[in-house]
Amino acid sequence: MARKKISIVGAGHVGSHAALWIAHKEIADVTLIDVIEGMPEGKALDITHAAPVEGFDAKVAGSSDYRDLAGSDLVIIAAGLARKPGMTRGDLIDKNAGIIKGVVSEIVEKSPQALVMVVTNPLDVMVHAAWKLSGLPPERIVGMAGALDSARLRAFVAMELGVSVEDVSAMVIGGHADEMVPLKRYTTVAGIPITQLLSKERIDAIMERTKKAGGEIVGLLKTGSAYYAPSACIAEMAEAIIKDKKRVIPCAAYCKGKYGLDGVFVGVPVRLGEDGVEDIIEIELNTEEKKAFDNSVSAIKKLVEGLRF
Ligand code: NAD
Hints:
By secondary structure, the chain is an alpha/beta fold.
């Protein structure tokens, strides 16, 4: 059986590491595309040289020609500027919206059957832009952020309790910004809510660190933003789609009616499979959680209103 094809547009830190994870796990063959000539080919060749050592047969190619998007089952958009210290994700909006516009028109023309995963920041706004510009049905476009924010929360809980990360499950919803909503009631260790394992003070501190985790890394790196965990999360979502696993992962998905919303991309738990966003799962939110979620949605809407194409 032929392997499926994933194209990644933007072969920078996030895109190239996503290519490595995806190939290493043999989820699909990968085509890396970037505007910088030679760079995607060079990185693809480098990953290919790792294949005999690590024993994976997935093929990785690089190109600066968008025609090589043809025949993709999934296109991942990781092209665009990343944050530097002192910047919010929102500061990237104008430049990255322009990049999204160009990339989406190429995807629609060269690989119209592909599902699309957006990674570029500000995430929720860029998914909205990609959907508007592509004309694709909303369930075929998904944004990666909740997987990452939840992974960060899982890591912090495991560090705090000295337990295996494998046993920690967490849920962060809302937008990929400081207003994101980590849900302590839905964060568990082997099914045990963390509210039974940690004090309120420690939980609050972990939730705050989760919200600022991207910024913590930007502050330390000084020249860009995180890429190891983001790319791992891209591979996790790509695997759910390509292998039709029906994973339940928080993703930016189009909510119309769901959560009482009137048509906005925001992080919510999604069943992810070969048809993309196959279902949006509505979880019960208490008054405090609902207020935080609504606040996050308002922040996204404000940024979406500022989109200029
Ligand atoms: P990077 O600067 O390392 O890579 C970006 C790449 O995009 C560069 O190689 C650049 O040449 C390329 N590019 C720019 N315009 C292009 C175009 N029109 N077509 C093809 N390629 C183009 O940045 P990075 O660290 O890889 O981050 C990429 C994006 O992902 C940023 O917007 C960043 O904020 C975002 N990000 C999102 C998350 C998330 O959770 N959603 C996490 C981390 C990073």
